[in-house]
Target: Cytochrome P450
Amino acid sequence: MTRLREPRRFADPDRFWPQRPDNAHLAFSGGIHYCLGAALARMEAQVALAALAHRLRDPRLVDSAPPYRPNTHLRGPERLLVAFDRLDPVSRFRGTDRPI
Ligand code: HEM
Model:
């Protein structure tokens, strides 16, 4: 059983509950079975999100000052809502750090 569905750790573990309190990030598990590919998976996500961001036409922040998580260790926005006019087709991006 995955830790994310562990009833001893999470109340009502099968319920989709985005605002769940005490919602520790365990997507890569933890302890001795911590995902060996976590660093690669994070790098892949960075590449994929950058590729997606390059395809957005006229992207802009919805909140001028995005709310930050009240967490001194894992600093970052609670959410980052981005509005855009449209999404360019995949063929405009060749996987470099710049759109063509
Ligand atoms: C978003 C992508 C990924 C997620 C969410 C993820 C998640 C997980 C989770 C939850 C576990 C623990 C499983 C358990 O406790 O039985 C795990 C283990 C593992 N993952 Fe990943 N993983 C990802 C990507 C990868 C990649 C890219 C690789 C390898 C290239 C990888 C290799 C492994 C290995 C070898 C284990 C077993 C570790 C052990 O049992 O000691 N994972 N992963």
Q: What stands out?
A: The chain has two domains: 1-36, 49-100.
